[in-house]
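Extended Data, record SDR family oxidoreductase
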Amino acid sequence: MDLTDSGAVVTGAGNGIGAAIARRLAGAGARVVVNDIDAGAAEAVAAEIGGVAVPGDAASEAGVTALIAEAGAHLGAIDLYAANAGVGVAGGPEASEQDWDLAWQVNVMAHVRAARELVPGWLERGSGRFLSTVSAAGLLTMLGSAPYSVTKHAALSFGEWLSATYGDRGITVQCVCPLGVRTNLLEASGDTGKAILAAEAITPEEVADAVMAGLADGRFLILPHPRVADHYAARANDTDRWLAGMRRLQAKVFEGNA
């Protein structure tokens, strides 16, 4: 993908992975709209990279519609949409209805709503790129957080469906699936998340490096931690063995928290 003078929107770009992606896109010549629910953070990143801040909710139907309309007014055309905003919610079935709904709205429906707005125009012009930050949890699971795991699986599934349906009509869909990344989300993941992810956590800039490589070759799965591919294959080839391994890992977490 030639990013020179392309129009890109990055949600959740006020910090972490989103900010790193926005910086790399701008450095490659893209005109970037920086979105974040934190207006100050969005404006700071936009000022740094010479982009435009369009703060606000990138999950609700009204918020997504407003974001894409304003971004289009600034960019003329949106060539790349990076659906990066996400939330991590701890717990299992006992997590509240509000927490489950929040995870569903931000981690899944934000992507659906963005595609609803963008796909018709991309089909008409014959090109467009949808980049979804999914997490390795969408390929595997995340112990300690059923809402996060379930919704990230759904986000991956939606990306697969988009690619299967529109991939031969000019729309490229890609999913970024890192393990631990040194962001606020990791800090908020609690003892379980840190015990599992912190040791191999990489920087947002390293994720952005992988994203740029993925944009260059068009692969569907962008894996900043390459070993995730092996875990994903093991999960598919022998699910019972993989689950047994996850139960052993969960037992170690329980022991560590005892």
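Summary. Residues 97-125 form the longest helix (29 residues).
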